Amino acid sequence: MAVDNGLLAPLAIFIIAGAYYFLSAQRIINEDFVDASVRQMVGLMYISDVGFNLVASRLSKSKRKKTASKKAPTGTPGLVLNLLPLTDLVGLVCAFEAIRLAGSGFHQTVGGASIPISCLLNVLITGKVFSTGQLTGISIVILGLAVKAKALLDSNDDDDAAGFPAVAVAHVLVSCVGYALRGIAMEYLSDNGVDGRTMTMRMGVTGVAAWGAYTLAFTARDFGAKVIEPFSAASTRVGVIASFSLYASHALSRGIASGTITQIVSLGGATVLSLAQVTRASIIILLSSVAFCGVDERQCLDGYGIASAALVIAGSAYYGNAKSFEEELDDLIDPDVADEMDSVIGEAEEILEELVDLYVEEHGSEPTEDEFLAWTESLKRAGAEAERKVSKKAATPKKATPAKKPKKAAPAKAKETKSKAKETTTARRRSARK
């Protein structure tokens, strides 16, 4: 799948804005603005998602024409939409817990496992088939992750550390599963007509509600000690304006980055999103080494780290430019046959669009998949019934009207005899008078 031109912009924004919000999150965590148990980063990210989407929705409504309102999805799409926030919440909470336990560099490196995990889940859940080129790119990514993992293990042995951080690894892997499932769910919902803003708002509102409940249960009773006192000390140390700027820019970058996720999924799929996350992670590893190595040795980058980041980025680029399995099949098909197939598909899409427009005219809103299928089935039944009635009417015999007997024409010879007789009679009458 060569990268779609429409995919380049959201990918670039996702990587750049996402890298900043992770680095700014690391800075906020390092400055100890609040106690770690508050889990402020989770709340901040969900609040920024909701706020950003509300502003974007308000701006877009003032610019676009009024369209038919969309009904909430039902059936399987509705169930998937309700489960979507759970996958995102699991991914986000476990990711920041891993950062707290082992550092951002460790999380970003092991988090590259989201690529093979996403591929595996795609195969198991959706039956997706990957091309040789895509598998090659994924293999390069895995090689890069293996290099960094070995470096971390060797570092633990050299420092005589207390074993490998298994708990942190478990949190990262669970986070990868959550994010991979989120990508698959978003791809499915996008294919079923659920717009990105609806998905983002559902995740954001659910996340804010969950974090609010957690805060009431575990933070509210010690709010002064966990929030007010440490925040006051940290803002004094960092500076009030600098603290505000740090939080505001972090929230803005998060909102911008999250707004591109649904675009990436709808244009490129869940695996492309995972590859973008791995690419972003490699950039974060490089930048975090420059920014935080002096205060946190876990962020320092060595030769193994550089090689790992290079391999991961190279593998991601290779995957992004590789043809998909479907495109490889298209290359094997005769061009004339392929053009004919494209023409048939184009006509079918036009008919489908006309049917959707007709549904909107009748019902005043766009249909869900289940509603559209039920409606088309009713049209089929109505058409079959009308055809049956027409056939029955045509097969019913009509009563024959008896034809009038035509008058027999007088024979030609009879006419001539009659004429001659008339002439003879006239002649006799004249001779008698004489």
Count of helical segments? Answer: 16
The low-confidence runs, each spanning 5 or more residues with pLDDT under 50, are: none
Mean pLDDT: 78
How far apart the termini lie comes to: 124 Å
Radius of gyration: 38 Å
Give the helix/strand class: mainly alpha
Number of domains: 2
Percent strand equals under 5%
- Helical fraction equals over 70%
What is the strand tally?
0
Sheet bearing the most strands, described?
A: none
Order of helices and strands: HHHHHHHHHHHHHHHH
Shape: globular
Region (Disordered): 386-434
Biased composition (Basic residues): 390-410
InterPro entries: EmrE-like
Biased composition (Basic and acidic residues): 413-426
Describe what you observe in this structure.
It is a single chain. By secondary structure, this protein is an all-alpha fold. The chain has two domains: 322 residues, no CATH class; 35 residues. InterPro entries: EmrE-like (IPR037185). This is Drug/Metabolite transporter superfamily. It comes from Micromonas commoda (strain RCC299 / NOUM17 / CCMP2709) (Picoplanktonic green alga).
Quickly list its features.
single chain, 434 residues, mainly alpha, 2 domains, 16 helices, 80% helix, 0% strand, globular, transmembrane, membrane, Drug/Metabolite transporter superfamily, EmrE-like
